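Model: Ready when you are.
Researcher: Fold this.
Model:
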Amino acid sequence: MRPLCLVLALLCAPALVGAQADSTTRPPGAFTMVEVRRFGVTVVAGGIAYLGDQALRDALQRPGVQSSELLDGAARFGNAYGAPGVLVLGAAMWGGGLAAKRPVLATAGLRAIEAITVSGLVTQGLKVTAGRARPFTSPDNPADWKLFRADDPVEGSYASMASGHATAAFAFASAVTATVKRRAPERARAVGIITYGAAAVTAYARMHDDKHWLSDVTVGAGIGTVTGWAITRWHDTRPDNPIDRVFLRPFVAPTRRGATMVGVTFSTR
């Protein structure tokens, strides 16, 4: 797990420095000591899952499991939901919320897009750095690692750590649920059950299709979840930030040719 620890340490280094700043003069950064601890939990969880990688992979690839129509259908749903499903759904929530003047829906969609984007960059960097072989490439050796070996950071044979699908699905779940909890708490429980449940199916799908080990989806889920929480908290401490001013305050106006123009406004300070 040394490659994973190195990447997470580099990501969290700014938070360690920023923690010394006076919190009364500026809002906390996106990654604070809270995120450092949560990323630490992700590393520990990934290490524990690593111990069960081979046994679970062998169990899920048994003929009885692979021939199950129910599990195969769940895997198809999970794969589509993880990519590009959650990104499309986030964009639809954002655009639909703006059009219908439902700010909670629009905000949740925007937070989801942000969380998916940021966590995706983290995961892609980890894929390239770790160079871990996918289960279908090295089925009997979950310890097949080589730094900077990833041939394709998305679907390459050596881009197993971490799961991008799981990262995106859990980033969507955490960002949307956290946003709803703050703005419409009466709906948060149902939203959490649905979104985290769908994310869990996505994690299973990646293992069912022999694309990832258990530790891959565990770390991906942790990265996505922590990032979603961090994005939401960052916005909560900056209620008039430039991102929201641009993307949550659109205007609709007629053009000279009779068409309708939709855009955004922003100001500089």
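Researcher: Now this one.
Model:
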Amino acid sequence: AIKLGIPSFINEISTGIVLLTFNYIILGLTGNTGVAAYGVVANISIVCIAIFTGLAQGMQPLVSRFYAIGDEKSVRTLHCYSMATALLLGILFFLCGFFLAEQLTAVFNSEGDVRLAELAEYGMRLYSIGFIFAGLNIVSALYFTARERAIQAFLVALLRGLAAIIAFSLLFSMFWGMTGVWLAF
């Protein structure tokens, strides 16, 4: 349980660690308004990530069952369907984030802060590119868990959810400021 549960634990705890890291970096770059803009983007992101997680958690027991009885064809089929669904959802979330950035930001910007709107809209358009890949990573991590491939599940979860995003946010922010922070995801 511990060996196969660690990847899911990393997926869950990484959100808080990444939020904290991003807030710290953004506070140094753009101050409180930047942190508020990230809050807008992060709130929308949490909903998208929850949908990807739901997809992956829905797939996991079925893959486990078919894996346990040796039905590799069904395992592969479920994996393909899940990955295709994650990719389609990722593209949909990207398109919504890109083309509806103004409307999505307005929901959280009741005071009409122009600077907040500019930062959040720009950030939403860049950040949403990551949705295309996030779902694939989340589904892959839980797929590996369902197949009892703890090391692969651990590596996917650790790299996507924690190590890569923190490293990229630190590195990209040094070169491109806020644009780098948004692109790190």
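Researcher: Key takeaway?
Model: The radius of gyration is 18 Å.
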